[in-house]
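seq as requested:
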Amino acid sequence: MKEYEKRYHEYLINHVNGVVNAWVDIRPLLIDENIITANEALKIDQQILKHDASKFTEEEFNAYARRFCGANTDLDRATFKIAWDHHKTYNLHHHQSLKDYFGEDWHYYIVEMVCDWISMGKTMNNTAWEYYEKEKQKVILPEMYQVFLERILTLLQKRQLSQERLKGQA
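C-alpha coordinates:
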Protein backbone atom coordinates (compact mmCIF):
# COMPACT_ATOMS: atom_id res chain seq x y z
CA MET A 1 0.00 0.00 0.00
CA LYS A 2 1.34 3.41 -0.97
CA GLU A 3 1.84 6.06 1.69
CA TYR A 4 -1.05 8.25 0.47
CA GLU A 5 -3.31 5.17 0.47
CA LYS A 6 -2.36 4.49 4.09
CA ARG A 7 -3.14 8.11 5.01
CA TYR A 8 -6.48 7.93 3.25
CA HIS A 9 -7.31 4.59 4.88
CA GLU A 10 -6.56 6.08 8.30
CA TYR A 11 -8.65 9.17 7.50
CA LEU A 12 -11.53 6.98 6.31
CA ILE A 13 -11.48 4.82 9.44
CA ASN A 14 -11.45 7.97 11.61
CA HIS A 15 -14.31 9.50 9.61
CA VAL A 16 -16.50 6.40 9.85
CA ASN A 17 -15.78 6.21 13.59
CA GLY A 18 -16.74 9.88 13.79
CA VAL A 19 -20.07 9.15 12.10
CA VAL A 20 -20.73 6.29 14.51
CA ASN A 21 -19.82 8.52 17.48
CA ALA A 22 -22.06 11.31 16.18
CA TRP A 23 -24.93 8.82 15.93
CA VAL A 24 -24.30 7.51 19.45
CA ASP A 25 -24.38 11.12 20.65
CA ILE A 26 -27.55 12.31 18.87
CA ARG A 27 -29.54 9.05 18.91
CA PRO A 28 -31.09 9.52 22.38
CA LEU A 29 -31.87 13.17 21.65
CA LEU A 30 -33.71 12.34 18.43
CA ILE A 31 -35.74 9.67 20.22
CA ASP A 32 -36.47 11.90 23.24
CA GLU A 33 -37.63 14.73 20.96
CA ASN A 34 -39.86 12.33 18.97
CA ILE A 35 -37.97 12.98 15.76
CA ILE A 36 -37.48 9.24 15.31
CA THR A 37 -38.86 6.20 17.11
CA ALA A 38 -36.79 3.61 18.94
CA ASN A 39 -37.59 1.11 16.16
CA GLU A 40 -36.38 3.56 13.54
CA ALA A 41 -33.23 4.09 15.58
CA LEU A 42 -32.52 0.35 15.40
CA LYS A 43 -32.72 0.49 11.61
CA ILE A 44 -30.49 3.55 11.51
CA ASP A 45 -28.01 1.69 13.75
CA GLN A 46 -27.53 -0.85 10.96
CA GLN A 47 -27.24 1.81 8.31
CA ILE A 48 -24.67 3.84 10.25
CA LEU A 49 -22.47 0.77 10.70
CA LYS A 50 -22.19 0.55 6.89
CA HIS A 51 -21.48 4.26 6.43
CA ASP A 52 -19.23 4.95 3.43
CA ALA A 53 -18.46 1.24 2.92
CA SER A 54 -18.27 1.88 -0.82
CA LYS A 55 -15.19 4.06 -0.27
CA PHE A 56 -13.28 0.86 0.42
CA THR A 57 -14.19 -0.55 -3.01
CA GLU A 58 -11.94 -0.62 -6.03
CA GLU A 59 -14.29 1.83 -7.80
CA GLU A 60 -13.66 4.52 -5.19
CA PHE A 61 -10.70 3.93 -2.90
CA ASN A 62 -7.78 4.77 -5.20
CA ALA A 63 -9.42 7.83 -6.75
CA TYR A 64 -10.34 9.23 -3.33
CA ALA A 65 -6.92 8.41 -1.89
CA ARG A 66 -5.15 10.11 -4.79
CA ARG A 67 -7.48 13.12 -4.71
CA PHE A 68 -7.35 13.78 -0.97
CA CYS A 69 -4.06 12.30 0.25
CA GLY A 70 -1.85 11.86 -2.77
CA ALA A 71 -0.43 13.96 -5.53
CA ASN A 72 -3.83 14.71 -7.03
CA THR A 73 -2.25 16.41 -10.01
CA ASP A 74 -2.17 13.02 -11.73
CA LEU A 75 -5.89 12.42 -11.14
CA ASP A 76 -8.02 13.84 -13.89
CA ARG A 77 -11.50 15.18 -13.11
CA ALA A 78 -13.20 12.46 -15.14
CA THR A 79 -11.60 9.69 -13.06
CA PHE A 80 -12.66 11.30 -9.79
CA LYS A 81 -16.16 11.99 -11.15
CA ILE A 82 -16.59 8.27 -11.83
CA ALA A 83 -15.67 7.50 -8.21
CA TRP A 84 -17.92 10.28 -6.87
CA ASP A 85 -20.86 9.14 -9.03
CA HIS A 86 -20.33 5.58 -7.79
CA HIS A 87 -20.27 6.84 -4.20
CA LYS A 88 -23.49 8.83 -4.60
CA THR A 89 -25.21 5.81 -6.14
CA TYR A 90 -24.39 3.59 -3.16
CA ASN A 91 -24.70 6.24 -0.42
CA LEU A 92 -28.01 8.05 -0.28
CA HIS A 93 -26.89 10.11 2.71
CA HIS A 94 -25.63 12.72 0.25
CA HIS A 95 -28.18 15.38 -0.61
CA GLN A 96 -27.16 15.18 -4.26
CA SER A 97 -28.61 11.64 -4.39
CA LEU A 98 -31.28 11.93 -1.74
CA LYS A 99 -33.13 14.66 -3.63
CA ASP A 100 -34.25 12.02 -6.15
CA TYR A 101 -35.02 9.28 -3.62
CA PHE A 102 -38.57 8.76 -2.44
CA GLY A 103 -38.41 5.53 -0.42
CA GLU A 104 -40.23 5.34 2.90
CA ASP A 105 -36.89 5.37 4.73
CA TRP A 106 -35.74 8.73 3.33
CA HIS A 107 -35.50 10.24 6.83
CA TYR A 108 -32.92 7.60 7.85
CA TYR A 109 -30.62 9.04 5.20
CA ILE A 110 -31.18 12.58 6.48
CA VAL A 111 -30.09 11.43 9.95
CA GLU A 112 -27.03 9.73 8.46
CA MET A 113 -26.23 12.88 6.46
CA VAL A 114 -26.31 14.94 9.65
CA CYS A 115 -23.97 12.43 11.34
CA ASP A 116 -21.69 12.67 8.30
CA TRP A 117 -21.65 16.46 8.59
CA ILE A 118 -20.93 16.24 12.32
CA SER A 119 -17.97 13.94 11.66
CA MET A 120 -16.69 16.11 8.82
CA GLY A 121 -17.06 19.15 11.05
CA LYS A 122 -14.55 17.69 13.48
CA THR A 123 -12.03 17.67 10.62
CA MET A 124 -13.09 21.01 9.11
CA ASN A 125 -13.53 22.76 12.50
CA ASN A 126 -17.21 23.59 12.10
CA THR A 127 -20.60 22.26 13.13
CA ALA A 128 -23.23 20.55 11.01
CA TRP A 129 -25.31 23.72 11.33
CA GLU A 130 -22.43 25.93 10.14
CA TYR A 131 -21.78 23.63 7.20
CA TYR A 132 -25.45 23.66 6.26
CA GLU A 133 -25.68 27.44 6.51
CA LYS A 134 -22.64 27.81 4.26
CA GLU A 135 -23.87 25.25 1.70
CA LYS A 136 -27.63 25.80 2.01
CA GLN A 137 -28.07 27.06 -1.54
CA LYS A 138 -26.62 23.79 -2.87
CA VAL A 139 -28.67 21.51 -0.60
CA ILE A 140 -31.74 21.03 -2.78
CA LEU A 141 -34.17 18.58 -1.23
CA PRO A 142 -37.92 18.01 -1.32
CA GLU A 143 -39.61 20.36 1.15
CA MET A 144 -40.53 17.57 3.57
CA TYR A 145 -36.88 16.43 3.67
CA GLN A 146 -35.67 20.01 4.13
CA VAL A 147 -38.04 20.60 7.04
CA PHE A 148 -36.91 17.36 8.71
CA LEU A 149 -33.24 18.23 8.19
CA GLU A 150 -33.65 21.73 9.59
CA ARG A 151 -35.59 20.39 12.57
CA ILE A 152 -32.64 18.17 13.49
CA LEU A 153 -30.04 20.86 12.85
CA THR A 154 -31.98 23.43 14.89
CA LEU A 155 -32.27 20.99 17.77
CA LEU A 156 -28.52 20.31 17.66
CA GLN A 157 -27.75 24.02 17.44
CA LYS A 158 -29.93 24.77 20.48
CA ARG A 159 -28.30 21.93 22.41
CA GLN A 160 -24.83 23.24 21.56
CA LEU A 161 -25.71 26.78 22.62
CA SER A 162 -27.19 25.46 25.85
CA GLN A 163 -24.02 23.47 26.57
CA GLU A 164 -21.86 26.53 25.85
CA ARG A 165 -23.93 28.61 28.28
CA LEU A 166 -23.50 25.95 30.97
CA LYS A 167 -19.74 25.95 30.43
CA GLY A 168 -19.71 29.74 30.72
CA GLN A 169 -21.51 29.56 34.06
CA ALA A 170 -19.08 27.03 35.52
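Helices lie at 3-32, 38-49, 61-69, 77-90, 95-98, 106-124, 128-135, 143-169.
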